[in-house]
Amino acid sequence: MRAYHLEASRLDALRMVELPQPSPGAGEALIRLRAASLNYIDLAVATGAFPAPSLPLIPVTDGAGEVVETGPGVTGLSAGDRVIPHFLPDWLAGALPPVAGRRMRGITMPGSLADYAVVPAASLVPVPRHLSFTEAATLPIAATTAWRAVRTGAVRPGSTVLLLGTGGVSLFALQFAKASGARVIITSSSDAKLERAKALGADETINYKAVPDWDARVLELTGGAGVDLVVETGGEETFARSLNATAEEGTVFVVGFLSGADLKASLFPIIMKMLKVVGSNTGSVADLREAVRAIDAGQIRPVVDRVHEFEDAAGAYATLSRGGHFGKIAIALGNGG
Ligand SMILES: NC(=O)c1ccc[n+]([C@@H]2O[C@H](COP(=O)([O-])OP(=O)(O)OC[C@H]3O[C@@H](n4cnc5c(N)ncnc54)[C@H](OP(=O)(O)O)[C@@H]3O)[C@@H](O)[C@H]2O)c1
After folding, report:
1. CA 161 → CA 53, 132, 146, 179, distances in Å?
2. Same structural domain, 228 and 328
3. Model pTM greater than 0.70?
4. Is the shortest distance between the CB of 193 and ligand 1 below 6 Å?
């Protein structure tokens, strides 16, 4: 089968290789991957910012495809089923398993940049009928995280939600928050992207380059109250402003570190407003399943900005590292439709 190996923790160490097709053991399924999609973590693995424990590695966390064959003891799956393998296949539901028993696709086990993969059968979630493989491949990390954010923030009609930037997590959170009846405020460095976010349902937009004190603008837009939920993807540069922009007893869902991970922020907004500051480590297979159910029920379509061919996987990484995308970046593995 065709695959990529990341041979060292460098972006130029991605090599196309020919490998034997793996076969499924007990409790496993062999899937033919049809599409993959990139997350920030893939870039971190490829550059060594989040090093993989052993190389070479078939990289990329997220993908989608169809079942080819199942191993002994697997029930409820048939050849041809369209499926999404979850990024954290050992976290089926409930509490996060201990780190030693928690594999990560594309980091501690083979990922999605290959024609075939063997995964635990219990980590597979059906692809909604209205989605292509390419769209489905964008769901494991970004949609699961956005789903947990809106659930953790108890988002409901009348809630106000703040999203930072127009990356994958923010746009799924926008779609889930709107489907839940919330009012959504979103920031971006680009007016053109803010227009696209409005077309997806955003109620209020702020250009964080033109309005550096965007937290004050959020307070203005909410009559001084602040928002019920911030999906904090920015990290170092945005965290303190996110605390300012949150309403009393509101939730700051801490997801990302796009501008760095070393914080300097006053504790007083957390203490005085009794904020809930909740960390995110993606979510379980059950969370992905719930996110997919919501996507199916709401006929939500993931926002795929660009699809690179398999032969141009390095180009997909380059697109992600340049920034400037709106939503997700995907890689086609043959028939991605
Ligand atoms: N902990 C978890 O569970 C978890 C899960 C998923 C992702 N993450 C992390 O969350 C972050 C976002 O992930 P993603 O997949 O959505 O990333 P992404 O798709 O690459 O999003 C990048 C976008 O974020 C915006 N951005 C960049 N710097 C910003 C800043 N200083 N302030 C505000 N917005 C900024 C930009 O939007 P504009 O171009 O519109 O300005 C940029 O296009 C990453 O750090 C990722 O590693 C964590």
Report:
1. 37, 29, 12, 12
2. no
3. yes
4. yes
CA 170 to ligand 1: nearest atom: 16
Neighbouring C-beta atoms of residue 248, cutoff 10 Å: 12
State the distance from the centre of ligand 1 to the C-alpha of 231, rounded, in angstroms: 10
Boundary-marking domain end, from 236, 264, 279: 279
Q: Are residues 134 and 11 located together in one domain of the fold? A: yes
Domain of residue 17, CATH code: 3.90.180.10
Task: Give the C-alpha separation, 88 to 284, whole Å.
Answer: 7
Tell me how far the alpha carbon of residue 153 lies from the centroid of ligand 1, in angstroms: 19
Find out whether the beta carbon of 258 lies less than 6 Å from any atom of ligand 1: yes
State if residue 234 touches ligand 1 by the CB under 6 angstroms criterion.
yes
From the alpha carbon of 282, which atom of ligand 1 is closest? 3
Mean pLDDT by 10 residues, the chain (337 residues): 96 96 98 98 95 96 98 98 98 91 95 98 98 98 98 98 98 98 98 98 98 98 98 97 98 95 95 98 97 98 97 96 95 75
What is the residue range of 178's domain? Answer: 143-279
Q: Which of 186, 258, 280, 287 to mutate to test the pocket of ligand 1 (most atoms within 8 A of CB)?
A: 258
Which parts of 200-237 fold into alpha helices (H)? 214-221
CA of 76 to the centre of ligand 1 (A): 36
The first and second tokens of residue 215, run together, are 């937290």
Q: Are residues 162 and 267 in the same domain?
A: yes
